[in-house]
Amino acid sequence: MDSKPKLKLNGRYYRMYPPEKFQGHAEEPLELDSSTTAFLVVDVYGLGFAPDDERPHEYPSLSLAASADKEKGIVVDHIRPAMDAARRAGLPIIYLNNSAPRIAINHSELAKIARRCCDMDWEEWGSEDTVDPREYVRGDSAALKFSKVIEPQPDDYFIRKHSYSGFFETRLDGLLRNLGIKTLVCVGFALDVCLHSTMVDAMNLNYQVLLLRDCTMAIELPGDLEEMAFTQRLILLTEYSIGFTATSESFIAACEALTVSEPTL
Fold this sequence. Notes:
The protein is an alpha/beta fold. The chain has two domains: 6-96 and 144-256, Isochorismatase-like (Rossmann fold), CATH 3.40.50.850; 100-142, no CATH class. Helices cover 30% and strands 22% of the residues. It has seven helices and eight strands, in the order βββαβααβαβαβαβα. Strands 5-4-3-6-7-8 form a six-stranded parallel sheet. The chain has a two-stranded antiparallel sheet with strand order 1-2. α1 (65-88) runs parallel beside α7. It starts with 5 loop residues before the first strand and ends in a 9-residue tail after the last helix.
């Protein structure tokens, strides 16, 4: 008898058939083996989530106060509680973070896009004061610093990335294989860029993806911010082309209910 503890919750997906009228949303009961499931946290850096942080929170991609407020609520009210539940359930916590490795990254297409679309110098923006200057750009940028409310803990895993996807030229796949991970519970930002790209690559590598849909946000334009229309559309995209979604509440409940089945004598 399989005695491995299971996380039991419903995963939502979207049925794009029949062609004349889609059947739409449905749910499937999931039983996730806790020994092969990890909690993946993408780009949750930035100060201002905690009251005693040294500076207010700024949305990393749009200088809209309302975007910062929404992102803060997602981190404090949803991501942090879900992460705490994952830790109590014994799931590995894996942080993926943007960075500025010394690979002439300002000559990359990504850095060129960042400059022309966000007026951002990638090396200056991504510099850190805790890195080996032989490998990464060392500097005093506060952009990638962690708020006290969401900072990695000593037993968490931390991987720097330099592309949208956390799998591109990083150690992530090796870490997941070493841990025997098959399912990724995904949270973070932005749903239309780095989180999306990471989840697509995870699915392509045959990892099962479960997005906590209230633990993320896309880069919303001002006219769409109130309803978070783009975010909702990308959640739907995830449900018909990448994996399942669930709420942080249902994930937390599954973690709290986690028990080891007693073997039959």
